[in-house]
């Protein structure tokens, strides 16, 4: 979703004006999502102006069948 590619200010609600439901753990599930994962954050590390999160996927569900769209850039998975 192009909405999440734009920059946000610190503290800004990234899900404002986006239709969501809540997962069992309280996390948002996008209404248009094909699937979702519920994760538990195990560790956080500050990396300059970003945070790196290490999380454990505890639950998940496929909501709808369909083709996925991915944002694949500078991932190191190609040479």
TrEMBL record:
The keyword Acetylation does not apply. It comes from the Bacteria. One of its GO terms (molecular function) is FMN binding. It holds the Pfam family Flavin_Reduct. Keywords: Electron transport, Oxidoreductase, Transport. SUPFAM superfamilies: FMN-binding split barrel. Its EC number is 1.-.-.-. InterPro entries: Flavin_Rdtase-like_dom, NADH_oxidoreductase_modular, Split_barrel_FMN-bd. This is Putative diflavin flavoprotein A 5.
